[in-house]
Each structure stands twice: as C-alpha cells, then as structure tokens.
Specification:
The strands form seven sheets. Strands 1, 2, 6, 24, 25 and 26 form a six-stranded mixed sheet that branches. Strands 3-4-5-7 form a four-stranded antiparallel sheet, with no helix packed on it. A four-stranded antiparallel sheet has the order 8-9-10-11, with no helix packed on it. Helices cover 10% and strands 33% of the residues. By secondary structure, the protein is mainly beta.
C-alpha cells in the first residue's frame, strides 16, 4: 500500500480574514471606469483609491488609521481633466504618488502627513509625452525618481520625475495595446503583456526585446471559466503569488518553487461580494507581531475592506523564517546612475522590530530638482502674509500645521502633568 508524500511548506496553512466593520473605509464612491487597473494603491502611511469625479479625474488619499465612514467633503486629489486610470505610490518616498489619466498625462503629487483642508489640485510635476490615454504607471524598484508609463499609443516612456525629463522612449516594440508592465527585482529588465498575445522581456536601456518566445510554459494552472481581469500580486519574500479577479469574490494563492511542478496551489480566500479592485501592502507595512504575511485592500462599490493574510504560530517571538530582510525605502541608485548602465539590488531592512514610517521624506536628485521650486506640503513656508503672492490655500495650510502643532504641545503638556502627579503620589507615599 503506497503512502502519499505531503509536500512540506510553512505557508500551507495561510488563511485570510477580513477586518472588523469599524476598521473598513466606508462611503467611498469607487470609480466605475472600465479599466484593467487595480484602482487602489497602499503603503505604510496611506491608502489611495480612484473615485468617481465630475468634470475630470480624482482619487482620494486616506491615512491608514482613518477608518470608518469617510466624510463626503473629504479633500480629493484633483487635477486631471479626464478620469484617472492608474495610481502608484513611490517606493522610496511614502508621501509621493503618481497618477495616470485618460487626458494623456502623468502627474506626480506630494501628499502631506496631515489631512488638507481642501482638494489638492497642483501636482509637483506633470509629465507630457503620450498621445493617447495612459493606463499604466510603475516606479523603478531601486533607482530614485525613475517612473515608467505605458499608454494606448503603444509607447512605454521612462521619466526622471525630479527633472521632468523623458529618459527613454520605447517605441516600435508593441504592435497592439499594452496590458501590463512589471520590473524585475533590480530594475535592469521589464516585462510586458500585450493584446497581440506576446510576453516581452525588454532591456529598456538598450531599447531592445531580449526575449518574447517562451514556447511551452513550465507550468499551466487552469483557473475557472470567469472572463474577469486577473490582478496578480507576487511576494518575493515568501515566493507566493496571489491572484485576484476583477468581478470575482475570491483570492487564490500559490507557492512558487524551483523544482517541478513549480506551482503549488495553497488555498482560496472566498467572500460573498465581488471586488472592483485591489490594493496590496508592501511588506514593511505589515504587522509582524501577528504573523501577517500579506494585506489586501478590497474595493467594493462604496467601501474598501482590508483583508489580512496570516500564518498561525504559537510563539510570540519574531518569526525569522516568515520575514527575511525586505526592500526598504532607501533607493540604491540615482536616476543618472541607472541610465548610464549601473544596476543595484534593493537596500534591505529587517522587520524584526517592525517598520516605523519616516515623516515627510523629501525628493532628492543629483541634478537641480524642479520639485525644489515648490515647497512640499507640510514644510515651513518662508512667505509672510503681506506677500502679494501668498495664496489663501497656502495660508490655510500653514494654519492647519499650526493647529496640529498646538494639539501636539497640549498632548505633551497633559502627559507631563500626569507624570508629575504620579511622581508626587510616589514621593508622598515613600515619606
């Protein structure tokens, strides 16, 4: 009698669980635009969601802690003259996000740590170069300020957002609509999928396709009969790929190994309601104390629902095997270095003590940075209120910052007072 050998894997029992109702983001008018984008982008500070907007395009940015019902007058990020199709947070600056739109432009925005009092309407830079709508944007994983955009003009453009310059234009490589673009780990190559049913591996600096005929796949996984767009998310630290289908109500996840059969089905997280889009938290934004290995932000028609993926462990100690060192926020290269041919692996950080986001990281480049011409929100302004160029939004921004500082001082004063009272009680008790 033969015994079936069960494959050993620490991720065999990964399970997903939605958060409680009060930890969701309610009353958000998620965009109804027909687009293959995920409509959502998250980082350790914020969740951004593309929303319905009259007379242009907009997305909303919420601090992660601001859960519950969202005020209908909550400020939006507006500035595009047509619907926003894709958004992506900068991996090297948690306060910077890029947006792509039907209006053929890409805009880069600086988001303040505090909630602004009115809509953010002025991007720090607008990138113009596409002739048709732009549906895909993706930041370079290791080089500072390098952003990729792909449009319906079948062009892929690489930008230096710190100077507003086009670095490279990849043309005559795609014969039809580009469906998706992804970087390899060090950003030396990128891969595209296209409507012409070809997958291309491209060396952007040599401006040539280095592979696009993969012949037979090493593994083939049949999913289901649904015709919804699949949103794949890959975690290189655990070698798990998560597949979320637009219009589907489940998340399937698989472990990838170096040996046949290469792809191993793990499990499926199922829910009752279909997803309009999905955000995926970077590893440094997870709660390592709860053995959380992934967190999704599922978009419904009127809300965003975080879903936590965990590996059950009995020990309360840090689980080294679940959390190898992971890419941190520091870039490994400047844009010019990468363009000249230099490559570098991501600069890794340990999650042993959890990751604490750094406030207001400023964009820095070797060249003169056009972002320096406009002080980012949240920094102290040198204008006086007598300056004729001092706008009312700028004044309100300063006042908002002053209010936030006052609240911080009051909180510290109360804390000091409480500590003094405790100290008095202690000294009186020892007399």
């Amino acid at each position: 009698m033969s015994r079936r050998v069960v494959r050993q894997s620490k991720f065999r029992h990964v399970f997903g669980q939605p958060v409680k109702a009060d930890q969701m983001y309610e009353d958000i008018r998620v965009s109804k635009v027909t687009c293959d984008s995920s409509f959502c982008a998250v980082n350790p500070k914020f969740v951004a969601i593309i929303v319905e907007s009259g007379g242009g395009g907009a997305f909303i940015v919420l601090p992660l802690a601001k859960t519950g019902r969202v005020d209908k007058n909550h400020p939006l990020v507006t500035g595009h003259t047509a619907p926003v199709l894709d958004i992506d947070w900068c991996p090297h600056n948690d306060n910077v996000i890029a947006s792509a739109s039907e209006d053929t432009t890409v805009m880069v925005w600086q988001i303040p740590d505090y909630v602004p009092v009115r809509n953010i309407t002025e991007p720090v830079v607008t990138l113009e170069g596409h002739s048709k709508r732009v549906g895909i944007i993706s930041w370079h994983p290791t080089a500072r300020n390098v952003l990729l955009s792909a449009g319906c003009d079948n062009l892929v453009i690489l930008w230096n957002v710190g100077t507003g310059e086009m670095l490279l234009v990849l043309e005559d490589m795609h014969t039809d609509l580009i469906y998706n673009v992804g970087w390899n780990r060090n950003g030396s190559l990128l891969v595209t999928t296209c409507k012409d049913k070809k997958v291309r591996v491209i060396d952007p600096r040599k401006q040539q396709v280095v592979a696009n005929n993969f012949e037979e796949p090493i593994a083939l996984q049949e999913m289901d009969t649904s015709n919804g767009v699949l949103l794949p998310f890959y975690d290189p630290d655990s070698s798990i790929v998560y597949l979320c289908g637009k219009g589907d109500s489940s998340i399937r996840y698989f472990e990838i190994t170096d040996e046949a059969p290469y792809v191993h089905y793990l499990n499926t997280y199922s829910s009752k309601e279909p997803q309009r889009g999905m955000g995926f938290m970077p590893k440094r934004g997870l709660d390592v104390s709860k053995c959380e290995i992934a967190r999704f932000f599922k978009l419904h028609e009127r809300k965003c629902e975080p879903i936590v993926m965990t590996v059950p462990r009995k020990s309360d100690l840090f689980q080294d095997d679940l959390y190898p060192d992971t890419p941190g926020p520091e870039p490994a290269l400047e844009a010019d270095e990468w363009l000249s041919g230099k490559d570098a692996e991501p600069i890794l950080i340990s999650l042993r003590d959890g990751y604490v986001p750094i406030k207001n990281r400023e964009l820095k480049v070797v060249k003169k940075n056009i972002l320096d011409n406009k002080p980012p929100p949240g920094r102290r302004h040198s204008h006086s209120t007598c300056d004729p160029n001092f706008s009312r939004p700028a004044l309100e921004e300063v006042l908002e910052e002053i209010r936030a500082l006052k609240e911080m001082v009051q909180a510290q004063e109360k804390r000091i007072s409480d500590l003094e009272d405790k100290l008095c009680q202690f000294t009186n008790g020892t007399d």
